[in-house]
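Protocol step 4 of 6: record predicted structures for both targets in the notebook before any analysis. Target 1:
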Amino acid sequence: MNNTIKREEILEANLEALYKVVMSICEPVMKDQVCNHEKYEEIDNKQDTLKLLKIIKKTMYSNGEDDMHFGYNHVIAITNYYHIQQERYQTLQEYRDQFVAYRKVCEQLGIKVGASDSGGDNMLKRMKITNPTQQQKEDTEKKAIEEHHAILFMLGADKYKYGKLIEEMKNDVVRKKDPFPKTIARASHLLSKWTNNYGGKYNNGKSDSNDGMAFTTVTEEKEKDNKNEKNSILHASGAKRKGIIQMNVPKNCP
């Protein structure tokens, strides 16, 4: 009993210390918005770190939670979620954390992202369940929603690293295959194991989805008796393409 009480006291002390740390690292604008929140005084008196973090998260991703802008906040939350893209050099874990954070904001606002009347029915059909129980209906609806999030997560992945993989998946959809992972966990695992033509690294600014097509101009100088003539040759180079396109080249040039 004494050990339990002691652990609770330690936990409470740690949460209070964490509360001060969280407030100290907030930028002035964020801190001002948090302090002006209608529930801040109550949260501050109790040093409630969890509720403080909840306010910060909503302020960051959905413009707060005031009733007057309820519709606007919904639009912003959904827009942020569906437009999220992994930034170049952003780690997979950072992208996943950001993705999950946007999703949670939508859920906290009561937005059922990925839910549809036919999603569960489609999943039952694909699983070849003809007479489902109520539990099976509920389970397949959850699976359909999770699949929705997983596909969105894949499509938002960094095109510089995973462009070729995503293009192949899209092509498989056209071929009537089922290539996309069903959960964010599986999608993350797939991306973490994927190796592109550059050994899983960035390909110097060229996208895997177009095989690294780039154009460069090479200037070649040739001396003649009375003048120097400069010829510009436009090279179209690609990882899987060979050939040179020559423009404005004199007839006597090879």
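Target 2:
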Amino acid sequence: MTDCKEMIVIKIRIIGSCGSGKSTIAREISNKFGIPCFELDNLVWNTDHRYSDEERDSKLAEILKQETWIIEGVHYKWVLESFRDADLIIMITPNTWIRDYRIIRRFIRTRIGIESWNYKQSVHNLIEMMKWNKKYDQEHFPCIFDLTECYSHKRIIVRNQEDTLTHMDRFLINR
């Protein structure tokens, strides 16, 4: 990835299923270029409760006003402005089995205290997340693809972190 000493002014929207690597790549780009990174789950969840839609939407509006940002998350229905305002939309689509492995690994790591998470992890949540993950490719990805079709000129679809970094380099060089 291109090295850069000063912050790059860019707005990046990263979307993918649970366990797709959104948070990892968002943090890497954020650290590399000094761009603030925001997880949509943090706009939805506090560790002990869910924020109201009004609180959530207000937090999103504040982020969107910033000059530069990375917004990552699986949410798409209530964050249409993030697609509109983004300079680059990254859709991450790794293999379902890789996502399942990452979901289970994260669950174990949060349960034993190695990793923190936005909300309390439970076996029920794990099962629901695995079910939702199975439906993502057939149900959610096509919806997201359709919702972002008018932004296809700034949308890339990648399979992994390496593809993302390669596309990011190309995007920055061509700016």
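Step 5 preliminary note on target 2. The chain has a mean pLDDT of 89. The helical segments are 22-33, 41-44, 53-64, 80-85, 96-111, 123-147, 161-173.
Proceed to step 6 after PI sign-off.
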